[in-house]
Design brief:
The protein is mainly alpha-helical. The protein has nine helices and two strands; from the N terminus they run H-H-H-H-H-H-H-H-E-E-H.
C-alpha cells in the first residue's frame, strides 16, 4: 500500500495516530468503553500532548539525543500534574476507572518519538498546526470507539439509556476493545488504500496524452 503524502492535516485521516501508526492504542482498548471515559482521555491526551510538544520544542537541539528525550519526559510529567488535578474535578469516576493508563498518556509516542522524527523538523507554526491534527486524529478515534462500545455493550449513550434490542457485553472488556479496534483499523486501511489507488489512477489518466 502506498504511503499517503505527508501534509499539514495528514494526522487526522491519512496518517491517523491510532489507525495508521497504531500508536497510543492501550487507552483506547482498555478504557474506551464509554463516552465519559473517552472525554476524559481526549482531554488528557490533547492537553498533555500539545503543551508538552510545544514546550519541548524550545529544548536546544545541540543536546545529546538521550538527554533531549529525558527532558521531554520531564516536561510531559510536569504538564501531567495540573492536567490530572483538573481531570479529578471534571471526570472523577473516569479517572478511577482509567487508572494507570492516564499517566501513561504523558509518555505517548507523539511526545517521546514523533517530536524528533516529525514535528521538530518543521517551522514552529507549521509544527503546531500539524500537531493539532494528529491530536484530533486520536480524539476522533477515541470518541467513535467510546460511543460505539458504550452503545452496544451497555445500551447507553453517555450514561442515558438508548433503545437497543440487543447488547454485546464483550465490547465492554479489553478483548472486545481489541477486536473492535482491529476491525476499525481494517476498515480504515481498506478505505485509505482504495482512496490512494483511485487518486493514482486519476493522475495516470490525466497524464495520458490525447
Amino acid at each position: 500500500m502506498d504511503k499517503p503524502k505527508n501534509t499539514l492535516t495528514s494526522g487526522l485521516l491519512a496518517d491517523n495516530t491510532v489507525l495508521s501508526a497504531c500508536m497510543v492504542i492501550s487507552p483506547v482498548i482498555m478504557c474506551g468503553d464509554t463516552l465519559q471515559n473517552a472525554f476524559a482521555l481526549i482531554y488528557a491526551f490533547s492537553a498533555i500532548t500539545f503543551l508538552s510538544v510545544m514546550l519541548s520544542s524550545f529544548v536546544p537541539r545541540s543536546l545529546p539525543y538521550t538527554v533531549r528525550i529525558i527532558i521531554y519526559a520531564v516536561i510531559a510529567s510536569a504538564v501531567y500534574i495540573p492536567v490530572k488535578l483538573l481531570a479529578q474535578e471534571f471526570y472523577p469516576e473516569s479517572i478511577e476507572r482509567i487508572g494507570i493508563y492516564y499517566p501513561l498518556i504523558a509518555v505517548n509516542s507523539l511526545i517521546v518519538h514523533q517530536t524528533e522524527v516529525r514535528f521538530f523538523r518543521m517551522k514552529r507554526l507549521n509544527m503546531a498546526g500539524s500537531l493539532i491534527f494528529y491530536i484530533l486524529g486520536f480524539d476522533a478515534v477515541m470518541l467513535i470507539t467510546g460511543f460505539v462500545r458504550e452503545l452496544l455493550a451497555y445500551g447507553t449513550i453517555n450514561g442515558s439509556m438508548a433503545d437497543m434490542d440487543f447488547l454485546i457485553s464483550g465490547l465492554s472488556k479489553p478483548f472486545g476493545g481489541f477486536i473492535f479496534l482491529g476491525l476499525f483499523c481494517g476498515i480504515y486501511r481498506k478505505i485509505r488504500s482504495a482512496a490512494v489507488r483511485q487518486k493514482n489512477e486519476a493522475g495516470s489518466e490525466a497524464n495520458v496524452p490525447d
